[in-house]
Amino acid sequence: MRSPTELLKEHGLAVTAQRMAVLRAVSARPHATADTIAEEVRGALGTVSRQAVYNALGTLSESGLIRRIQPAGSAALYEDRVGDNHHHLICRACGKTVDVDCAAGETPCLHASHDSGFKIDEAEVIYWGTCPDCQAKA
Asked: Where do the domains of the chain lie, and which CATH numbers do they carry?
């Protein structure tokens, strides 16, 4: 895997300590919230404002280095698995989120019944259910 420095340079972004720390935190904690990522970054760098972390997350998402997912009724989650059009499974009880490979092959892997003239390039699917740990507790 390429280093954060290489990834930032490849995408034409300035290499900053905050961006590198955010990339590392997202990689270490896939599907984490911005607040969780901010805690990780503070652990690595010391004092860093929440806004600096949010700004880095926005820039990295816009550049395609990380992916922002927004499940209904919850905070945005971030991951570094990008470009493969995978989906997510989320536990209704504890919020655990795991990756699920694309349902049927090529991007967008699902086809709308009517495209309304859009050129569709991605399908986002979230499966909701109860994880094995929460099932065992019930």
From this structure: 4-77 (1.10.10.10), 83-137 (3.30.1490.190)
